[in-house]
Amino acid sequence: MGKIYVFLTVGFGIGFPDFLSNFGVGFRGKLFPEIILKKQAPAFMDFRFVINIFFRIFSASSAVFKDLADKQEFSGRFFLYYGMPLIILAAYARAYTLLVAETEITFRLQDLIFVNMAGFALSFWLGAYLIFLMSPSFKAEKSFGKILMLVIASFTPYFISMLIPLIHPTLAPVTYAGIAYTVLLFGKGAGVMLQVPGNKVVGFTLIAFFIMFGVVFLSLMIFTGLFVNGDNV
User: Fold this and answer.
1) Residues 6+ apart with CB under 8 A from 108
2) Where in the chain are the domains?
């Protein structure tokens, strides 16, 4: 299937054409930019590709990051086909674990799942955008598409580790190992996908870590306040 271009004219400029261009949206002009929305070819993202990425992120992460670096224009599809299944699993795991561990919580399971899904999804996008803004300070490639894919792929160990306590609550510390592995993967991917210089990888990774997990925490708090009935607190 060929690419389908839809041209829309907007009457004012917005300050992040480069940010959108890395997500598959192109701009033409300044005062009256022409937004080009591209329908991505479906061949890149299918079930086999998702499964392949999932297993290779643990055994051949450098090769995975190289593959993703060449496909930044498909970051939206990567979020939907790879990121969302992880978010759904992690949201259920965290919601169920909270209900079991915290006896005073009276939220319904479906409310907690929704809050966690919304919080995690927002965290991917907002966290990736904040990292995108700081990337020039570390001489990293300023590509929102690549950063979003890097964040999603790197969070695989953490989200999977959240499922382990469902086996038994005493296995909860495994999530800390998932966090550590996530940070390690992000640092490795930052050099491969964003071309972060070797002497800046550690600093870039640590700041990105605090950004992402800070955004996760704040997002979960916000959505809990917005969508969970206060009478249930």
Assistant:
1) 232
2) 5-39, 44-232
State the average pLDDT for the chain: 77
Please report, to the nearest 10 degrees, the dihedral formed by the alpha carbons of residues 143, 144, 145, 149 taken in order. 110
- Which of 148, 144, 26 minimizes the C-alpha distance to 84? 148
Q: Which helix (H) or strand (E) holds 38?
A: strand 34-38
Q: How far is Cα 215 from Cα 233, in angstroms, rounded to an integer? A: 23
Q: Which pTM was predicted?
A: 0.74
| Residue 195 token pair | 């071309």
94-114 pLDDT, tens per residue? 888 777 666 565 677 888 888
- Residue spans of alpha helices (H) in the chain: 17-21, 47-59, 61-69, 75-78, 84-101, 109-134, 144-154, 156-161, 174-193, 201-227
Q: Are 81 and 207 in contact (CB under 8 A)?
A: no
Contacts for 203 with CB less than 8 Å, ≥ 6 apart: 138
* Cβ atoms of 121 and 113 closer than 8 Å: no
Counted residue by residue, the chain has a size of: 233
CB-side neighbour CA atoms (13 Å) of 217: 6
Q: Is 97 left (phi over 0), alpha (psi -120 to 50) or beta?
A: alpha
